[in-house]
Amino acid sequence: MTARLVATAAIRKVQPITSSGCLQRSFQNVAEWLGDDKWRAAWGMRAMPEKVKADWTAFLDQHREWTLPDVIKKLENLQSEFERARALQATKRRGSRGRH
Q1: How far is Cα 13 from Cα 46, in angstroms, rounded to an integer?
Q2: How many domains does the chain have?
Q3: Does 86 lie in the same domain as 57?
Q4: Both 70 and 53 in a single domain?
Q5: Which residue stretches of the chain are H helix?
Q6: 3-state secondary structure of 72
Q7: Which of 30, 84, 81 is nearest to 59 (CA)?
Q8: Is the pLDDT reported for residue 1 higher than 80?
Q9: Quick check: pTM over 0.90?
Q10: For 42-73, how does the pLDDT look when each residue is reduced to its tens digit (9 = 90+)?
Q11: Which residues of 12-32 are buried (b: 16+ CB within 10 A; e: fewer)?
C-alpha cells in the first residue's frame, strides 16, 4: 500500500462521518454503514460485532420519532450533566488534596 492509501484507510477507520456530517461513500444512513462488512474487509477493518448492530437497531427503534429539536435538547442536557459531573469531580479532587 502506498502512504496515501494507508493514511486514507486510517482516516476511514477513525472517521466514518466526514467533517460535513455526511456518511462516507455511498452509505445513506448509519444502519448501512454498520452492516457493510464487505467494505470494512476491503479496508482491512474487522466486521462490526453483531451486538453493536443489535444495539443500534434497539436505539433506532426507541428514538425513531425524535425530531431535530428533540435531539438538540437531549444533547444540551447531556452536556450540562457532563459539565456538572466534571465540576463536582474537580471539587472533590481539590478537597482531597488539602486533607493529606
Answers
A1: 10
A2: 2
A3: no
A4: no
A5: 3-14, 30-35, 37-42, 50-63, 68-97
A6: helix
A7: 30
A8: no
A9: no
A10: 889 888 899 999 999 999 999 999 999 999 99
A11: beeeeeeeeeeeeeebeeeee
